[in-house]
């Protein structure tokens, strides 16, 4: 598309030059006295800088300039937007991958714990005991029971 865009720039500048080479502006100057002036106008138009130093004066030149502007948007500005959205999607994909990578150790630990619980013969086995949640302790105080008295005989 870049090749077609540059060909469009060259041909449009040439057509504007042909339409405007004899046109005189309000101050009595010829705006597009050479093809280089028309090419300068084309580059400034394509890059959307728009200095305003070269402006078509005739209706034919303005028509060519309008068509060229629409053409330039489709061949120069549109690919830039596509590239920008592609970069944004790449950043979003990296963020998702980073989030996924953070979840891997937790999932692996869960799978290992479940396997240890399943594979252990003794439920109190030390292989998985550290992963079992202990119930909360009761906060009631137990009074010590009195010691039994020895009977004297």
UniProtKB/TrEMBL annotation:
Enumerate the transmembrane spans.
63-89
The record's GO CC annotations read: voltage-gated potassium channel complex
User: One Pfam match, by short name?
Assistant: Ion_trans_2
Keyword Transit peptide found: no
What's a Gene Ontology MF term here?
voltage-gated potassium channel activity
Q: Which InterPro entries match?
A: K_chnl_dom, K_chnl_volt-dep_KCNQ
Classify the protein's membrane topology as the record does.
Multi-pass membrane protein
User: Mind listing the UniProt keywords for this protein, alphabetically?
Assistant: Membrane, Transmembrane, Transmembrane helix
- Which cell locations does it reside in? Membrane
Where is it mostly found? membrane
Q: Know the name of this protein?
A: Potassium voltage-gated channel subfamily Q member 1
Q: Give the originating organism.
A: Mus musculus molossinus
